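Our example pasted here:


***
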Amino acid sequence: MDYSQYEIYPFDSVSAFNMSTGYKERSYQMHWHSYGEIMYVGPGETNIYKVNQSTYELAEGDFVLIWPMEMHAIVDADRKEALVIQFSNAFMNSLFDLRRIMHFYRNLHVICIHSHPELAAKLKTIAFKMKEYFFSDIVDKELRCCTLLMEFMLTLDEHRKEFAPELNSEVQDSYNDDVMRRMIAVTDYIKNNLTADDLSQATMAEMAGISKDYFSRIFKSVTGTNYSKWLNMIRLEKAIELLSVNDRSLTEVAMLSGFQSIPSFNRVFKEEKGMSPGDYRALFSGNK
């Protein structure tokens, strides 16, 4: 991965929400960043977007979903009336249901008005309400926009049966509230105790009071990924936070993030982020 394509945006550390519109340029180079984006496609005969290896020719009223750390580009599009909504990954990870939704729809990148007219219309209403608040002088506009962002995600999730076939994923089982509360408690415990001696799936299942197999099935259903991968993602989020502080060595960062060795830290970081922890720190420092 070309490190120059990483984009560090100021609101990463100071805000949970940002919105922009009115761009004159028709394209934007391939890039990636730690925050997510939702793009509302504006009018125009040509609207071509790219996410990862897929290219989409879209129409006015379509939405593009770009999850944190995904490569994407605007190949050729009329952007004057398009909307770009940007949201902090930390905000999405602050609530279990938002994390679950983000994981479930990880492979969904386009919502087309022609194939999902009811959903697209609902999402447009929410997006333009965000726009109304964001560009106003209301004091609490960020809070209002974040509330609408949660409504956006909830509305998407209410239509999940429409996307289950194309996402090649089963619709979440109906687990009772008690089981879900236990799962939330376990994930919160992990995030707050990354250096604990034993965070194995078996131990976490025991903490939740359910069998290991049942824990594994529930966990994948609600997060969209298996336990070990999710745990590595949480550790990497902590590592990225610590890498922004230059007075900690890479060894300290690895250990405080819960990695048992530097080699495993380097391997997981490079596999998921496309660069080594040291390269990331240098890139972050250079883009401050």
